[in-house]
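Figure 6 in text form: structure in, sequence out.
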């Protein structure tokens, strides 16, 4: 099995009033339960807003710590799910289910690189 990252991208700011967060969370929890039952689920979680981020970088031999997200943008990663899937098609099917649960937010699907010792 390969592992895939399903990242949920959302616009900055609070959700619009038209978004029913109770329904969204109910539907996301249903997909998560389905992933667990299928043995695909590894980990998932929502993230605090980008303003809570702290960035650590090495610059000119000195470690610098700054507040806020690394990249400025109008969207940010709002949550993520790591799954096991036999191939990209299976990972995309989980992403489709998640996208239906949180419509209209997009889901980015990316495979993890294999480690040298992995088979």
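Output sequence:
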């Amino acid at each position: 099995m390969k592992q895939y990252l399903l990242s949920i991208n959302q616009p900055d700011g609070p959700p619009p009033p038209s978004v029913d967060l109770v329904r969204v969370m109910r539907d996301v929890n249903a997909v998560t339960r389905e992933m667990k039952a299928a043995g695909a689920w590894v980990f998932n979680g929502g993230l605090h807003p980008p303003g809570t981020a702290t960035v650590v970088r090495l610059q000119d031999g000195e470690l610098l710590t700054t507040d806020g997200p690394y990249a400025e943008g109008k969207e940010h990663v709002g949550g993520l799910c790591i799954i096991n899937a036999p191939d990209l098609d299976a990972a995309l099917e989980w992403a489709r289910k998640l996208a239906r649960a949180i419509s209209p937010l997009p889901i980015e699907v990316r495979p993890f690189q294999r480690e040298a010792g992995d088979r």
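Caption detail: The two ends are 10 Å apart (CA to CA).
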